Amino acid sequence: MDLIYVGVIGIFVFLLLLAMRVPVAFGMALVGTAGLAYIQGFNTIFSYIPIQMYSHTSSFSFAALPLFILMGTLGFYADIAKDSYDAALAWFGKVPGGLAITTVYACAIFGACSGSALAEVAVFSKIAVPEMISRGYNKRLALGVICSAGCLDVLIPPSIPLVLYGVLTETSIGQLLIAGILPGIVYALIFALAIGLFCYFKPSFAPRSPELDTSWAARWKSFKRLWSVVFLFLLVLGSMYLGWATPDEAAGVGVVGTFLVVVYRKKFNWRAIMMATLDAGKSSAIIFLILGSASIFSAFILLTGVFSAISSWILAQNFPLWAIFVAFNILWVVMDVCMDGLSIMILTLPMAMPIMQAHNVDLIWFGIVMWTMLLIGGVSPPFALNCFVLKGALGDQVEMKDIYMGSLPFCFLMLFILLIYYAFPELTLWLPRLMKG
Q1: Minimal CA–CA distance to 82: which of 267, 211, 253?
Q2: Residues 6+ apart with CB under 8 A from 16
Q3: Which of 47, 160, 177, 202 yields a CA-CA distance of 20 to 30 A from 108?
């Protein structure tokens, strides 16, 4: 049988396993192992596959990944998320849609200490949703804000998905992280403006809270609590921007800095440290399991030549670049129905990279655009991983239908933001070009 047909069959079997609710990592490992054994013989299972998994996951560049995750979990136990929310509340609590806007900016602030959108959704679902609902906010509005604003964690550095993208595409991780700053700020500003305008014309969705203290004294007091965020942001991003540290070194320094914040705030106890370490370990293990499984599946698909054939065909047709981007966006939307953004990135990059390089597309810009599109998939039904995390955090307090209906309008807003990134590439590329070292 022609190898391309073997690859196509393998892809369909993988999709069938996903439809049967087999976890993505196990599905990729099973199909990849079976495919390689069919092509190269049964001995491949014991000789090639272990080496492939180890070599793919043992890159030193991946050291930044668990460290950034640990930095975020330690930041949670240091109450940085609550301080971010309180500070944003003191500044924006009384404007139309004040609590929702507060949530957006709090997510942006906490994003400077974390790197996982799912973790941010889980944290702020317990802080912001009860607050908004208790003050009469429309439940769907409250849930939609949490699902979509949590995506800021992927753009605002440090960002775990961008670290993975940098390793897989051999792109500067430091430049990728710096590149997310301005897009993240634009994302937060557009969200805040849209929510404010909507709530101004539809005040019944977000009643004002005149009893909130938004005096300058309260603002200054809350702002002083954010010194730790500023400290960690400058420590991690400043060291990379000035060329003083690599991303791996900056991640290690960030963990030490966050630990010092925990101690300074008298939040240190062995249980908190143990739980933060366990949470980081579990998240890292899941990511590395997906990476290792994807390496097997990718080796099988690359060996069959399916992706190279598709890439060659697309390039031969001389499609305009905008049409190629539209096609990839449609592909990602379809794949978002049954798998998470990380798996989609790993599976589609071998096909996308030759095309992007042939069109001289800046890979830093492409990484930001790609992940913005994948974030939309994390919010839009039916897979909507952010929605599942929100439901898991709040349990029976909310219905899945309300989460879906609340997140849908924000998907269109995120598409509008994506178009801005397309139209103004310098928004992404300006800061990385100014980096030292």
Answers
A1: 267
A2: none
A3: 202
Q: Report the distance separating Cα 305 and Cα 5, nearest Å.
A: 10
Q: Do residues 385 and 430 make contact, with C-beta atoms less than 8 angstroms apart?
A: no
How many Cβ atoms are within 10 Å of 272's Cβ, its own excluded? 16
Six token digits for residue 212? 């909130």
**pTM reported for the whole predicted model:** 0.82
The rounded percent of the chain whose pLDDT value lies above 90 is 9
* Amino acid identity for residue 134 in this structure: S
Domain count along the chain: 1
In a domain, 152, yes or no: yes
Question: Can you tell me which residue has the tokens 């810009």?
Answer: 365
Q: Residue 173: inside a domain, yes or no?
A: yes
Q: Where are the alpha helices (DSSP H) in 207-320?
A: 216-224, 227-233, 239-241, 247-264, 270-304, 306-316
Dihedral of CA atoms 292, 279, 394, 387 in degrees, nearest 10, equals: -30
CB 72 within 8 A of CB 116: yes
Q: What is the pLDDT of residue 194?
A: 93
- How would you class 346 by CB atoms within 10 Å of its CB: exposed for 0-12, middle for 13-18, buried for 19 or more? buried
Dihedral sign, Cα of residue 7, residue 10, residue 16, residue 21: negative
Compute the chain's Rg from CA coordinates.
22
Residue 16 domain flag = no
Domain of 228, in residue numbers: 62-298+306-433
Amino acid letter for position 434: L
What is the spatial distance between Cα 374 and Cα 379, in angstroms, rounded to a whole number? 9
Q: Is 390 a member of any domain?
A: yes
Question: 190-199, 232-241, 299-308: which has the highest mean pLDDT?
Answer: 190-199
Distance CA(287)–CA(13), nearest Å, equals 23
